[in-house]
Prior knowledge:
Helix content: 55-70%
Radius of gyration: 18 Å
Strand content: under 5%
Strand order of the largest sheet: 1-2
Amino acid sequence: MATNLYTAAEACLQCRDVDDKCLYAKALLDDWRAARLTRDGSPPAPSTCDAGRPPRPVLVSPRELAPRGLGNAEGHAALVHAVAHIEFNAINLACDAVYRFRDLPDAYYGDWLQVAAEEAYHFSLLRDRLERLGYAYGDFPAHDGLWEMAARTAHDPLLRMALVPRVMEARGLDVTPGMRERFAAHGDQQTAAVLDIILRDEIGHVEAGSRWFRHLCARRRLDPEETYFALLEQFLGNKVRCPLHKPARLQAGFSETELGRLEALCKRS
């Protein structure tokens, strides 16, 4: 018997247990590909934007987070924890992109269910690294910037695609190679290898955001590039951080002209 897609995505989104959430995310993708999920008889779209999470980590302002360096064991683990927290939030973001937005082609849902499953895999790899370092997910405080942007874009999939995959997750493409080299230089080849997997997959995640952003722009007869930069100005005050990982961003659906304009904004930020 088929299960409703949106109801199943909501169950994963609202799940508070990290192990169960990861299992749900993989099962969602498997069930979608096996045609065990249907969009028929869907419940109403959500009017609020919340997600299930465990009681820890404690969420604080980014200004309250201690510097995370690799000079000692605690700082090393704190940096792994920070990346794990991003990946955990990314599971929720992908599930919310499925659950919240109802009038897109089936391919859209297949893309974001795949993203959810891959983010769960990334989180599991990083949590294993934390455990080998003597820590657990939740042992360090974290901030909620990714989910705050999800709430700001909850009313419009075009905004969500522009500002979450193509801004916040794209920033991960820029910083992951340097982070990977820092771990490798400190002898942590295992975490470096996990970051290689994450970078490979995140290029595809940002590319999905680029593709569906352009789809929504075409549907509304909007110019994608001009719309993107107007949204950067409206929501972020044109604050862009560099350097950009241009090869990864090109693979992820950014154009050469977009990258040139982003670099020009970096000089003004």
